[in-house]
Design goal:
This protein is mainly α and about 525 residues long. It has three domains: about 55 residues; about 375 residues, Na+/H+ antiporter like fold; about 90 residues, no CATH class. Helices cover about 80% and strands about 0% of the residues. It has 22 helices and no strands. It starts with a helix and ends in a 19-residue tail after the last helix. About 0% of the residues have low confidence.
């Protein structure tokens, strides 16, 4: 017995000293990760504890904390372009595409594509010309700064839109533009990088052909994987497996598309759109859809928490000071180019489409809400070290990004208030709460009636309980009437909710037929054009 205990102690000592089992690199990386996570969750907690911090979007609050750490020269993790593009970006793109409604996106596809494609061109051309003329920047600096800053990242703004109940069309326009122009910006950066390094010559036809290949491969692969997984999930109903498939598809689509010479961003967006709007309907029951959506909400929150904290922590203030003149010029150009893009292309879209015009106030919010973020940083950091202007490019991109996030991001809510675009979210929330109470109490009544019919409870006791519940229902009815009288817009919101519910019932019914093998293809919805828009 003693010999056995001595052997066990010796084996344990050897295993603890084994360098394979105690890798200092793994231990250090784990410590850094836990430190970043602790700071992020600490900020999230404080933002809900103190009312003063609730008015600041969570992602911007994380950025401010990261900047504070950078001031005292505390560096959490070395942020690399690979970390952003291959680890952080795919889940953020997939989550946004999964949650965006295709019907809303389809209705505004023309302005979204105009902003995502021509808007990128206007931004790049404006920065290339302006930085050379007014800041004396080299062609390489102007090209790569222009490509990097052409990608918008309005995560903070769209989160604010949802919280305040801003018009859903504005949210769709901003999210849709960001989803697609990320891919266009990455492709533009890759095309212009060769010119900046003097290893390629600019040729319009070649550039357009390469752009077509990038986008075409991305859409084709994204569509193949999206529809493939959609039909695969029809064969079984295992929520954890279906959830895992969406995660694998987000990363797998990005990596495979990049390997095949396509746009990983466009591929992930395509897959997310298909799975969110088609696959989740025909291959997942409502409970599974809810589980998957909650999983992606958590993952997006988790990744955003890390990204914005690390972006702030990476800032090198001395380089910003060294290139302050170029940064100020770039800020002026980017604001001007964004105005030309939004107001010019928005007016053109209003002329050629039959949809309701994008209002001037809406265009103003889209213009001011064109923030720059993680994609711009990743592209700037991916500039090869062999390029002499690399430090200047990174400094300018970081400087412009900080201005858009801190100045434009923190002033978006006052701008919405000034333009009268603040939503009625508190009223809608109150209405939803009252409706939820009413539904719950009606279910309680149904249950009491069922118990009486089955003689499973004393009837006098059950009748007394029903009388109490009826009293509460009368109070709720009165509260709902008063809310509707004081806020007539609640009736519009109620109509929207009913319409969405009816469309969901129709779609789920077709999905049941498909899962049962009675239908091979999803039927076109009949109620989409029949039910009036609220």
């Amino acid at each position: 017995m003693i010999d056995n205990m001595h052997w066990l102690a010796t084996a344990t000592e050897i295993s603890l000293e084994n360098p394979v089992l105690k890798d200092p690199t793994i231990e250090e990386n784990l410590r850094q990760f836990l430190l970043v996570l602790s700071v992020s969750l600490g900020v999230a907690t404080l933002s809900r504890v103190f009312s003063l911090l609730r008015n600041i979007p969570y992602t911007l609050l994380l950025l401010l904390v990261g900047l504070g750490l950078a001031v005292v020269d505390v560096r959490l993790v070395n942020l690399s372009p690979e970390l952003i593009l291959f680890i952080f970006l795919p889940p953020l793109l997939f989550e946004a595409a999964w949650n965006i409604q295709w019907n809303r996106l389809k209705n505004d596809f023309v302005p979204i594509l105009l902003y995502a494609i021509l808007g990128v061109v206007i931004c790049v051309v404006g920065l290339v010309f302006g930085l050379q003329q007014f800041a004396g920047a080299s062609l390489a600096t102007a090209l790569l700064v222009g490509a990097s800053l052409s990608a918008t990242d309005p995560i903070s703004v769209t989160a604010l839109f949802r919280e305040l109940g801003v018009d859903k069309r504005l949210t769709t326009l901003m999210e849709g533009e960001s989803l697609f122009n990320d891919g266009v910006a990455v492709v533009a950066f890759e095309l212009l990088l060769g010119i900046a390094l003097s290893i390629e010559q600019f040729d319009v036809s070649v550039t357009i052909a390469r752009f077509g290949i990038f986008v075409g491969v991305g859409i084709a692969l994204g569509g193949l994987i999206g529809f493939g997984i959609s039909f695969l999930t029809q064969r079984f109903d295992i929520p954890l497996v279906e959830q895992s498939l969406t995660l694998v598809s987000a990363y797998g689509t990005y990596i495979v598309a990049e390997e095949l010479g396509g746009s990983g961003v466009i591929a992930v967006v395509t897959t997310g759109l298909i799975l969110g709007n088609f696959g989740s309907r025909i291959g997942m029951n409502p409970r599974t859809r809810l589980v998957v959506s909650e999983f992606w909400d958590f993952l997006a929150f988790f990744v955003n928490s890390i990204v914005f904290l690390l972006i702030g922590d990476q800032v090198r203030f001395y380089t910003l000071i060294d290139y302050a003149d170029t940064i100020f010029v770039a800020i002026a150009i980017i604001i001007t180019a964004r105005a030309i893009s939004i107001f010019g292309l928005g007016s053109f879209s209003n002329l050629i489409t039959k949809n309701e015009n994008i209002s001037l106030s809406g265009q103003t919010v889209l213009w001011w809400g064109g923030l720059r973020g993680s994609v711009s940083v990743a592209l700037a950091l991916s500039v090869p070290e062999s390029l002499a202007e690399r430090e200047e490019i990174i400094a300018v991109v970081f400087g412009v990004m900080l201005f858009t996030l801190l100045v434009q991001g923190l002033t978006t809510q006052p701008l919405l208030s000034y333009l009268g675009l603040l939503g009625d979210q508190p009223t809608r929330q109150r209405y939803t709460q009252l409706v939820a109470h009413r539904v719950a109490l009606n279910r309680v009544l149904d249950r009491l009636k069922e118990l009486i019919e089955r003689q499973e409870v004393d009837e006098e006791f059950a009748r007394y309980q029903m009388a109490l519940v009826d009293g509460q229902l009368e109070e709720l009815k009165e509260d709902l009437i008063n809310l509707q009288k004081s806020n007539p817009e609640v009736l519009v919101y109620a109509a929207e909710q009913i319409r969405d519910e009816l469309l969901a019932i129709e779609s789920d019914t077709y999905a049941e037929f498909i899962r049962a093998g009675q239908l091979k293809d999803e039927l076109a919805p009949l109620l989409q054009d029949v039910l009036p828009q609220a």
